[in-house]
Amino acid sequence: MRSNTVGWLMLAPTIAILGIFGIIPFIYVLYVAFHQWNPFGASPDMIYNGANNFRRLVFDAEFLTSIAFTMKFAFFAVLSEIALGYLLAQLFMKEFPGRGFFRTIHTLPLIVAPIVVGSVWRLMTTPSIGIIPYLLRNWFGYDLNIGRDATTAFTLTVIMDIWHWTPLVTLTLLAALLALPKEPFEQAQIDGANRRQIFWHVTLPMIRPAILATVFIRLMDALRTVDEVWMLTSGGPGAATRYVGLHIWKIVFPKTDYGYGAAISVIVLYLTLVMCWLLYVALVARRERKRTF
Amino acid sequence: MIRKSGIGIAALAIGVLTSVIPARADFWSDAGAKYKGVVLHGVTESTPPSNYIKDVLAPEFEKKTGIKVQIETTSWDQMYDKAIKDMEAKTGIYDMVYIEQDIIYAYLARSFLTDISKSLKDDPSLKAPEFDETHFTTFANYFKNADGDLFGIPMEAFIKVYLYRTDLFNDPKIQEAFKKETGKDLVPAKTHEEYTQIAEFFTKYGKDNGMELWGTTAQAHTGHAASWYEFFESIAPTFGVYNWGIDANNNYAASVENGGQMNGDKAKAAIKYWLHLRDIAPPESAASTWTEVGTTFAAGRVAQGLVYGENAAWIASDAEKSKVVGNVGVALPPTEPDVLKEVEGGKGYLGYYDGGAFGLPVTSKNKEATLLFLQFIGQDSVQPDWAIAAPRITNTATYDDPKVLDMDKKLNGYYTMLKDQGKLFAGAPPFPFHAQVREATAPIFYKILLGEVGPDEGLDQMAAAAEAELKNLGYRK
By its UniProt entry, which InterPro entries does this protein fall under (chain B) (predicted)? Predict the structure, then answer.
């Protein structure tokens, strides 16, 4: 009983912080989501409108498009980051001159603020002044123009995200790889397993929790990306890069439609949870169940 | 002996008097003494006039009063985001917020701002002797309520002008080539037809001669509101479509069917004209906002263009940033033949008079000290240097300052145009739903720019979307 009290007391600050900065704002967002509230409308009052905001978003083509684009963005960005991050982690496991230096250089993008990343990429990709259009034009005769071509703009947002966040994946997987025991690998080699078999049957199962945690983190980040993309494309051309985070920002700030923006936020949170849960079931729970039988 | 003792007595008397009577300094140090050590926070867009406040006026004010002023200069979107959040949540972080003349109506509707005129009347001890509201240009009217009280100290005011390259326009070879091709003299355009001809000529000239030169600028970003603004505030008015084509006196009608003009014939002609210009403008135009249009002109990549006046000074005079120093001409934007007459007759406007003010949020925790700072930046004596550093004029006396007159020559009469023809330009219409209608219609506008929807059909859709949003907001019955 006494130890329980001490435990609760120790937890109290964390619970208080979580309550103030996490739970209370979330409850408020939920509350706003069930209201029609545009403080800059003719009537700035908050009016309860039941589930109307949620009904509205089912028929909102802009919202549905933004969800589709976000899924596409998250799929390509996260998958590429995991693959590239793993390869780089393997590379940094090996001994080579200047390894420490390259590891440090590699992590530099992580310390750059997203808004700066977006600005720099915009500078690099603007026709007439950017280095990337210049090189593409001179080397391949290709005119890159993110203001006109939706595919190019989408691809660039993915590449920018990969550039910014792959180091995070590398660091996480590098830590996981360094923590692995040597014995299973030696046993596999003695049993005559080749590199591919060792990867699929020894390495991958052992670092799966680290991969899963990284995928969750990156997936959540990718689903709510705003600032980098805003700086690079402002959501354009048209709606090609108007990802759902940007869509919510536009609904809540310039349009000041707080009720509807809150409803979309709640749905996006729900979708994120569902996606993470599905991933967990697909990659971990099913295997755990198999192992039990 | 008597003389010596007389001097001694006089010196003693002076000594006694100076020790008894408190030192009398100027108004600023006296008024600021009470608030010494206070730190004022302001947020504004990173523009030349704002940077001048941050770099020059704020330190000067601190020196005189002991009140520290921290000005945060950030992007247009961030500035609004932060200011609105702060005032909405009543956190009181900011003592000063930048108010663009289009957002003021929304802020007033929400009672976000302090009545500056009334505050100074209520507490005369805060009133600076050098500050006089009547010295502001008529642009200050945008920041007043129905009673004529001021809610923001004007800090920038400029018009969006037609800039052209005098070196190109005065080049005899180019003049000859133009004459040969069009049968006309190469002079700044007065009509849309003339402007299009010049733009087409220079784009072709640049291509034929292997030059990085195009005929016109275009603020035609395909995902940023800058393009929407260029069309509705700079292009559509020159075709006779005012106030975005929305008739506030007719139940906020936007569509022609209901009495609006957003999808009228004039608007449809305007968008086709502008889309053609966009197509013959430099490739960066599809990703250009107001800033990039200025840099495109400054880089010598265009022969002419519509450029915000705040950029005109550095484009025309700062050799570190501009390749066209000394070669910048200024003119009124081209119009449809009848529009200029209509505007001169007091109906409508032919371009955008942009500007902003510093307002004092009611949530500020340092209202009195902020009122001092706002008067400091509003007094006549600080205006000329500010007007030279950034081409903005908010006080009538500034026009006659010798330094400003000198700069006017370098800018080929930009200040004179502002003074004499500023009346032909206008700010945004007094709509409190500015951002909401823009955001409701902008996605369709971007589709027009990308060719996903035709211009006629797109404007029809935009007019319908505007009316739906106005209804949703409760303005349209």
Answer: Bact_solute-bd_prot1, SBP
The domain covering B160-352 belongs, at the CATH homologous superfamily level, to Periplasmic binding protein-like II (3.40.190.10)
Is residue A237 reached through a cis peptide bond, with omega within 30 degrees of 0 on the bond before it?
A: yes
Residues 6+ away with beta carbon under 8 Å from A282:
none
Contact B308, B390 (CB under 8 A): no
pLDDT of A37-77, one tens digit each?
988 888 888 999 999 999 999 999 999 999 999 999 999 99
Q: Is A136:A159 a contact under the CB 8 Å cutoff?
A: no
Q: CATH 1.10.3720.10 in chain A, residues?
A: 62-252
Distance CA B278, CA B288 (A): 11
The first and second tokens of residue A52, run together, are 């109307």
Phi, psi of A149 (to 5 degrees): -110, 115
Reference B451, options B200, B290, B276, B283; nearest CA is B276
Which position has the token pair 């909405």?
B88
Closest by CA position to B96, among listed B153, B52, B48, B143 = B153
Closest CB from A42, A127, A147 relative to B221: A147
Q: CATH: 3.40.50.11310, 3.40.190.10, 3.20.20.450, 3.20.20.70. Which one for B30-158+354-426?
A: 3.40.190.10
Pairwise CA distance, residues B196 & B281, whole Å = 11
Residue with tokens 């000005």: B71
| Other CB atoms within 10 Å distance of the CB of residue A5 | 9
The single-letter code of the amino acid at B144 is: K
Sign (positive or negative) of CA dihedral B334, B339, B341, B346:
negative
Number of H helices, E strands in chain B: 21, 7
How far B103 CA sits from the closest chain A CA (Å)?
11
Q: What pLDDT does A220 receive? A: 92
With vertex at residue A47, the alpha carbon angle to CA A42 and CA A51, rounded to the nearest 5 degrees, is: 125
- Give the gap in angstroms from C-alpha B427 to the nearest C-alpha of chain A: 19
> Which residue of A122, A124, A128, A232 is the best one to mutate when testing the B interface, meaning the one whose CB has the most B CBs within 10 A?
A128
- Could you name the CATH architecture of A62-252? Orthogonal Bundle (1.10)
Residues of chain B positioned with their CB less than 8 A from the CB of A240: 223
CA distances A282 to A197, A278, A290, B330, Å, are: 21, 6, 12, 66
Q: Residue B302 in contact with residue B281, Cβ under 8 Å? A: yes
Within 8 A of B221 by CB-CB distance, chain A residues are 147, 234, 236
Cα–Cα distances (Å) from B11 to A211, B1, B23, B395, in that order, read 87, 15, 18, 47
CB of B161 closer than 8 Å to CB of B330: yes
For the segment B232-281, what is each residue's pLDDT rounded down to a tens digit?
999 999 999 999 999 999 999 999 999 999 999 999 999 999 999 999 99
CA atoms of B455 and B452, how far apart (whole Å): 9
- Predicted confidence at residue B6, as pLDDT, reads 55
Cα separation, B66 vs B49, whole angstroms: 23
CATH 3.40.190.10 positions along chain B are: 30-158+354-426, 160-352
